[in-house]
Amino acid sequence: MRVKDVKKVVLAYSGGLDTSVILRWLQTVYKCEVVTFTADLGQGEELEPARKKAEMAGVTEIFIDDLRETFVKDYVYPMFRANALYEGQYLLGTSIARPLIAKRQIEIAEAVGADAVAHGATGKGNDQVRFELSYAALKPDIKIIAPWREWDLTSRTRLLEFAEQNQIPIAKDKRGEAPFSVDANLLHSSSEGKILEDPAIEADEMVYQRTISPEDAPDKATVISVDFEHGDPIAIDGIRLSPAMLLTRLNELGKANGIGRLDLVENRFVGMKSRGVYETPGGTILYIAHRSIESITLDREAAHLKDSIMPRYAELIYNGFWFSPERRMLQALIDESQKSVSGRVRLKLYKGNVTCIGRESPNSLYSMKVVTFEEDQGAYDQFDAQGFITLNALRLRLGAAGGRKGGSL
């Protein structure tokens, strides 16, 4: 193990077993001053216990920041303007939280004069990459401590032994093998490991925390409207809400209707496949609503171009490149496309499903006068289609003729 020369470190601290052990380990091995930072991203947990645990460990500089509004406004909303899905399914709930945590860590490090930052991500996961790429982009000279890649506490048993030896409080349910691990924020919850490691076995109902089972959802549909302004949601059922409050309300609606469950085997950036169970109730509703308002406000080629770059954009976020120049470039293109994306979408929520049942916008490109099957008073000359088809068929005709001459047909 290589111990860096560190005087003061800012630790991303949840107050759970892992980061509590890391806190004491930093004090013991690095013999440095530790500053703790706990981010409230809407994970739904009481955060004051984290403060008390840090105080018990002798920490004098403790930061607990409510970042819910910043998280949704500056990270979730820009990502949803892109309709970002990793590998066609994952709404990137964990991925999008890491750059904000890293950014605030660096800000605190600069404010308190720390020369290092530390995180609790394991050496097998994606989060170590996301944190450290963000650190590098924001403060390239900062020292980084990744305990899971450095220490010899390689098992749960050894972690618990270290905790007991150092008088670190251990929750009773941590004294055995935890059934699975959970990461949560206002956008989603993510469960993985232990009882979820075999992808052939259905996840037990106990895994789901943010949604009721679709089978148990009401037999009557819930109908809502979502208003958009320049690609961002601003109101539900005509009531304007702040970004965090709006997502909170969508989460409530999604939970009550069994919406947003996903059982996924994904390709991690570090090279392995991983099975995760995700719940993104409000995000799933928002995704459908946003695509619905775009359907009447975006030009065809603009919409298709945007869709073509979405996988690359989603991959950048998943892999930890939020602060990269290429993500910023793609974001500028996406944001330009959203200038006309304003209006109202009506949605039906029913037993795990979200269905758009209406959309309207002052910027709508949909013309009933053109698409009608009745008389259109000259809005569209159907005869024009003949030349359009003839020109588009030309290369196909030439290709077919050439193939016959060459004997391949």
If you had to describe this structure to a student in words, what would you say it looks like?
Helix 7 crosses helix 8. A five-stranded parallel sheet has the order 3-2-1-4-5, with helices on both faces. A five-stranded antiparallel sheet has the order 10-9-8-13-14. The protein is elongated and about 85 Å long. The protein has twelve helices and 14 strands. The protein folds into two domains: 171 residues, 3-Layer(aba) Sandwich (Rossmann fold); 137 residues, Argininosuccinate synthetase, chain A, domain 2. By secondary structure, the protein is of the alpha/beta class. Helix content is 40%, strand content 19%.
Per CATH, the architecture of the largest domain is 3-Layer(aba) Sandwich
What is the residue-averaged pLDDT?
A: 93
Number of separate structural domains: 2
Considering DSSP H and I runs of 4 or more, what fraction of the residues is helical? 40-55%
Q: Give the SSE string.
A: EHEHEHHEHEHEEEEEHEEHHHEEHH
The helix tally amounts to 12
- Content of β-strand: 15-25%
Regarding CATH, which class of the largest domain? Alpha Beta
Runs in which pLDDT lies below 50 for 5 or more consecutive residues are none
What is the strand arrangement across the widest sheet? 3-2-1-4-5
**Structural Rg:** 26 Å
- What's the total count of β strands? 14
**What would you give as the CATH superfamily of the largest domain?**
HUPs
Shape: elongated
Q: Quick one: biggest sheet?
A: 5 strands, parallel
**What structural class do the secondary elements suggest?**
alpha/beta
Distance between the termini: 66 Å
The CATH topology label of the largest domain is: Rossmann fold
